């Protein structure tokens, strides 16, 4: 949840898009971190912009919900350490892909291929950011054992 709140907020997303380039590793990673973007506030009056805002906000919320659900259901079977790390990492991969797939049908002119492309972008976020959740899950479970 902290990753979504810290790196998905509108000021940070705008800062990253203005001050970084995807041509280097650091800029590329910062852009990946901003994937579950969310925003509060006015948008222009077009229905497309409103749908995009709703889809982005819902995607961020569903990401948090799906990851929490996966961790809550499966965490009892994992004792921590490497298993906890893999659980946290995979939970973010699956949760972000599912959130992206579902919310892609909210935007204007949705397609099944577009939903699959959104799920691929979501799973990339989980793949490259999920190690943070994995590390926290692995150490939290290890400490409780």
TrEMBL record:
Residue intervals passing through the bilayer:
60-79, 85-107, 119-140
Keyword annotations from UniProtKB, A to Z: Membrane, Transmembrane, Transmembrane helix
Q: Which domain of life is it from?
A: Bacteria
**Could you tell me what this protein is called?**
Uncharacterized protein
Per the UniProt record, the lineage of the source organism begins with: Bacteria, Bacillati, Actinomycetota, Actinomycetes, Micromonosporales
